[in-house]
Amino acid sequence: MSERSPRRVIQIHESVIGPPAPRPRSIRPRKVADYPDVPAAYLEVAQKLSSPLLMGPPICDELIAFVHHVFTEEEASLVRHLRKYHKKTADEIARLEHRPPDAVAPILRRLAVEKRAIACDDSKGARRYMLMPIFPGIFEMVLIGVAPDALTDWHRRFSELFEALYETGYSTEYFDRRAPYVKFLPVHQSIEAHPMALPSQRLEVIFDRFEAFGVGHCQCRMAEQANGRGCGRPTGNCIAAGRFAEAGIRDGWLRSISKASALALKAEAESHGLVTWIMNVQSDKGQLTCSCCGCCCHAMRLVSEFNAPGLMAPPHFTPRLDAARCNHCGRCARQCPMAALTVDLKAKTLARKAERCIGCGLCALACDNAHAISMEPVPANELPYRSWFALMMHNLPGQARSIWKVWRNR
């Protein structure tokens, strides 16, 4: 695929540096009957993945093409029996397919462990399988364990088809309100020695909870690289800790590293202008964190491109402008990964969209000459949830309302 320029997070129009107009939703729903030449197994899988319970898109050309690529017809024939919330063993699926278990089990294992297009749970001895959402889910798991130089033509086509589906804007249906699943940490230099910085803002303190660490590759930057729109920033900084790391290392899609190495990778990522997010929870069981850029990250692009509320918790630190020091050079707006700042170079004005700001502090670092921006704490900021259960329960009512709304509209 030919190389293209990375996506522009901001636009420069005459003297104004700021966010571009929101991308419109372009999804075109269709019906299963519109695809008479597509094998039934693919259509059944597409119907399962389109479920609002999986935050799926409606049946559309992009979904059918994606499913047709991810699964062979034999794989799709097995996957059509899976559900999200009801796990099934290979023996159960074999009975539904009227095939011997020893013919079905290797296919399911390959789908779960090698291709990673379905989920697998072996906590109770026998492997049990279930569906994953497309995003977040299949997209991340398929790519996380593949190095950029090991991407095959199949992976490149996978990335292309996912991007076509993502760009329809279907996922914005499920984020008509903010859902604080992830929390961005301020860049270390922007709050160094700040007396109001909490332990939950410092990655080294968060990592002290865990012994096991595993690293994979950023799926978003790899997908954009495969699509010819890579930004050139490092990809090997998607890190799991605790039980999540142990599972990923065991199944081969994460590489075991030390805590010191994990922190070093995160520091390197910040030096390239990447920002760190973690799951918005303080659990000792496990943690997930990636280092993101505004041009590639699909979670950030929900906000910066589609103007949807997104998955981000409100920040604890936000920029404070010293108007007397600001020379309105626009460096802060150019550096912001969320296009939260608008600077008019001629009118000498600066405005911030609070709903876009993630509190990363890159704007303060960009203002290294004038020192007109500093990061200040938000007094009413809420601490991360104390357990995964609390995180899920807090977000459940809003998620249920969104799912109901999508189901009703369809």
List the helices and strands and how they pair.
Blueprint: E1 11-13, E2 16-18, H1 40-49, H2 61-70, H3 73-79, E3 88-89, H4 90-97, H5 101-114, E4 119-121, E5 128-130, H6 134-144, H7 153-166, E6 182-184, H8 203-207, E7 213-216, H9 219-226, E8 238-242, H10 243-251, E9 255-257, H11 259-271, E10 275-279, E11 286-292, H12 298-304, E12 317-321, H13 331-335, E13 341-344, E14 349-352, H14 362-366, E15 373-377, H15 388-409
Antiparallel strand pairs: 1-2, 2-13, 3-5, 4-5, 6-10, 7-8, 7-9, 8-11, 10-11, 12-15, 13-14
Helix pairs in contact: 1-2, 1-3, 2-7, 4-5, 6-9, 7-9
3D architecture notes:
The protein is α+β, with helices and mostly antiparallel strands and 410 residues long. The protein has a domain at 31-171 and 402-409. 36% of the residues lie in helices and 14% in strands. It is built from 15 helices and 15 strands. It has helices at 40-49, 61-70, 73-79, 90-97, 101-114, 134-144, 153-166, 203-207, 219-226, 243-251, 259-271, 298-304, 331-335, 362-366, 388-409; strands spanning 11-13, 16-18, 88-89, 119-121, 128-130, 182-184, 213-216, 238-242, 255-257, 275-279, 286-292, 317-321, 341-344, 349-352, 373-377. The strands form 4 sheets. Strands 6-10-11-8-7-9 form a 6-stranded antiparallel sheet, with helices on both faces. Strands 1-2-13-14 form a 4-stranded antiparallel sheet. Helix 7 packs across helix 9. The longest helix has 22 residues, at 388-409. The radius of gyration is 22 Å and the shape is globular. The mean pLDDT is 91.
